[in-house]
Design goal:
Layout (H helix, E strand, L loop, with lengths): L3 H11 L13 E5 L2 E4 L5 E5 L4 E4 L7 H9 L6 E5 L5 H4 L2 H10 L6 E5 L1 H11 L1 H11 L8 H7 L15 E3 L8 E6 L2 E8 L6 E6 L4 E5 L19 H13 L4 E4 L5 E2 L1 H27 L4 H5 L6 H4 L11 H13 L14 H12 L2 H13 L3 H14 L4 H17 L3 H24 L1
Parallel strand pairs: 4-5, 5-6, 6-7, 11-12
Antiparallel strand pairs: 1-2, 2-3, 3-4, 8-9, 9-10, 10-11, 12-13
């Protein structure tokens, strides 16, 4: 077993992440007596309640069995309950493996607990199945999002019956509950389930009042908060900060995230939560102030920056999402989709605009030539605009698309966040497919 608490203490206290913090080893580590974590994609926190195992999340469809096998090296007790911190595929996809293990051992099927909005999320996943496959493949840099098994279990059975493997059979609606949480007893222990919006609208964080433990799900991910994902539905940065403040107010002594390392110590946890919440509040405050002053999205995106010292924190590095994307999500939440440029309210098709620009410049080749000069000078943002115009103006030209692929590969290598790298790599593959098609015709 790894000493995860020792590792996180060293990293938080030193302020240096000199080794991986988001580990996916599939290995189980005991965090406290009766409490363990399997590091996976995402983690599964497992608690022995004295009346069966309560598991917070189930990891992904592809890793659920590995997680179950790891848990079974630690305990043979029945799975009493599966608690969904939220309904993302990497948190609920492994549920079938837990159900299968229960059946194989002759145990009762575990209760499945989640917020009421989990069901609505699953309904949306069914409705936008193909779209989700496409964006997950792009986001993860060419690794096709394997949703087949998950979506099969979400599709209605014959006769319209509801699927059972991933649907919470105990849904919590905290909006009408005093202080917006619900309590349940497992054995002799009470657990509080608190709802908060952040990365999702179906998120629960779980509080153990007696032990001072908190299972935070994705409210803490050891990266800059995933509050701006450019391909996904609305995130709520300010509400995310509010949830972190509410967690901190409980004064937890052990924090159990769904990604990254567990953190121990009341003061240490408070500092981490405060810094994450503060980064989100800083962005919201600055964006909304500029919106109130009548600034356009273009101005705001290029003006609002999180201090580099903040982004250097081991749990705030922009290696997955990044602040620039969060700025756009804040605009979308408070200001709608129009960016403030009149021509983009009802714009011409990209291809038509690109053709006009290429004609004015003297051809798509001129745009590409200038893009190469800009890229060599380190002006990759400008260069990418020009290669897109060139590619749209000459959609079947292999020379144009060879250059476009090269420049987007340069751009990808300059980026830190997985989301930027994935989207820019998709542009590379897009142009490479044009080149291959053209060469195949010769």
């Amino acid at each position: 077993m790894a000493d995860l608490i020792g590792l996180s203490t060293q990293i938080v206290d030193s302020g240096r992440a000199d080794q991986p913090v988001n580990r996916t080893t599939g290995e189980l580590s005991e965090i406290a007596p009766g409490l363990a974590m399997v590091e996976s994609f995402s983690h599964v926190v497992t608690w022995d309640s004295g009346d069966g195992l309560v598991c917070f999340d189930t990891s992904h469809y592809n890793t659920g069995q590995q997680v179950v096998d790891s848990i079974r090296t630690w305990s043979s007790s029945p799975f009493a309950a599966l608690v969904y911190t939220h309904g993302h595929a990497d948190h609920v996809g492994g549920s079938a493996a837990f159900a299968a293990n229960s059946a194989a051992l002759g145990h009762n099927a575990p209760r499945v607990i989640g917020h009421k909005n989990v069901q609505r999320r699953f309904d949306r996943y069914r409705y936008t199945d193909s779209w989700n496959r496409l964006i997950n493949a792009r986001q993860f840099g060419g690794i096709r999002g394997d949703l087949d098994g998950i979506m099969n279990d979400l599709r209605p059975a014959a006769g319209g019956a509801r699927p059972t493997r991933f649907i919470p059979d105990e849904t919590l609606d905290t909006t009408d509950v005093v202080d917006k949480f619900a309590s349940m007893k497992f054995g002799d222990t009470t657990v509080e389930f608190h709802h908060g919006r952040g990365e999702t609208d179906d998120h629960l964080w779980s509080w153990f009042p007696e032990q001072k433990w908190v299972a935070t799900g994705d409210f803490v991910i050891w990266n800059f908060p995933n509050a701006g994902n450019p391909q996904k539905v609305q995130r709520w940065p300010l509400e995310w900060a509010h949830a972190l403040r509410a967690i901190s107010a409980k004064e937890p002594e052990l924090l159990l995230p769904a990604h990254g390392l567990p953190i121990a110590g009341k003061e240490r946890i408070a500092r981490v939560l405060d810094e994450i919440a503060g980064a989100l509040e800083y962005l919201v405050k600055n964006v909304v102030e500029m919106m109130n002053a009548g600034e356009t999205l273009d101005t705001i995106v290029h003006a609002v920056r999180v201090p580099e010292a903040t982004l250097g924190k081991p749990y705030l590095r922009p290696l997955y999402d990044e602040p620039e994307f969060v700025v756009r999500n804040i605009w979308r939440q408070f200001g709608g989709w129009w960016d403030g440029a009149p021509s983009r309210l009802k714009p011409a098709p990209d291809a038509h605009l690109a053709h006009e620009i290429a004609t004015l410049a003297g051809g798509a080749e001129v745009l590409i030539s200038r893009a190469k000069d800009l890229a060599d000078a380190g002006e990759l943002r400008l260069a990418c605009h020009l290669v897109d115009f060139a590619g749209w103006a000459a959609p079947d030209d292999p020379d144009i698309h060879t250059a476009r692929a090269e420049i987007y590969e340069m751009r990808r290598q300059q980026e830190a966040s997985l989301m930027s790298k994935g989207i820019f790599k998709s542009a590379v593959r897009e142009s490479e497919s044009v080149v291959k098609a053209a060469l195949g015709e010769r």
